[in-house]
Amino acid sequence: MEVTKALAALQPLYGKDNVEIVTDNGSRVRGIVRSMKTTQALTTPSVKMERADGEIVKIPFTNIIKIIDHNHSGK
What residues are paired with 28 via a beta bridge? Predict the structure, then answer.
């Protein structure tokens, strides 16, 4: 996924739990969006997700193919 598209999709989900990210290799990470790094020099733009077991998983934006918000919108 393009960095700007991934960032736009993830920003409203920052700090929310029950968010799932699907990567280009088929991996799925579900948990809380903890941090997004986009502008640090010499680093790949990425998101850190905290899984239910407490493990932090770092996912580069370029590896993301789908972002799913499993939270109920209340509509």
Answer: 22
